[in-house]
Design goal:
signal
Length: about 180
């Protein structure tokens, strides 16, 4: 049964990668670039870590109605390199999986490490819980979600168990310990 679920999630994410699920085009790297000087202090990666990858995401934040309010269910996004080539998928966990080398990182938000962005999901700092593989995500210690656009849950009430997906874009950075 787990395999069937993985196939459904993979198919949904592939739809995002190919322009489905509300996606209209590949992320635009130039428009989403953020310099270190513009990163809010709350979401900065601690010293002793170095940037190992930076990808631009486009996808959806899916919400489910629980007790009359929208609650985040899962993200589904495709990450692209600076040339716009799809290189990774982002899904519930949260987890990021490279479509190039199969490496993956799962992370959890760092308490209090968020920067509110009007009209967009917040910028976040996440700490790695686990990694696998020998590729781009091997040894990642921190993930940042920056330069967010959209993805905010709808305003107002909802009917129990309803789901909705809201388009979003973000810049994800991946850092690893300096060795």
């Amino acid at each position: 049964m787990k395999r069937a679920g993985l196939v459904l999630v993979s198919t949904a994410l592939l739809g995002v990668a190919l322009g489905g699920a509300g996606s209209t085009a590949a992320p635009t790297p130039a428009a989403m670039d953020v310099s270190d000087a513009r990163v809010a202090p709350a979401v900065q990666v601690p010293s002793g870590n170095k940037l190992v990858a930076k990808f631009y995401a486009k996808g959806v934040q899916t919400y489910i109605c629980t007790a009359g309010a929208w609650k985040l269910l899962e993200p589904a996004a495709t990450l692209a390199d600076r040339l716009g080539r799809a290189v990774a998928l982002h899904s519930r966990g949260p987890i990021w999986v490279s479509t190039v080398d199969g490496s993956a990182v799962e992370a959890a938000p760092v308490d209090g490490a968020r920067n509110e962005i009007p009209g967009a999901v917040p910028e976040l700092l996440l700490k790695s819980k686990s990694t696998r593989g020998k590729g781009v995500f091997a040894g990642v210690s921190y993930v940042q979600r920056l330069a967010t656009k959209g993805g905010v849950a709808p305003a107002g009430g909802c009917q129990e168990s309803d789901q909705t997906s809201v388009n979003y874009e973000a810049l994800y950075t991946f850092s690893a310990p300096v060795r």
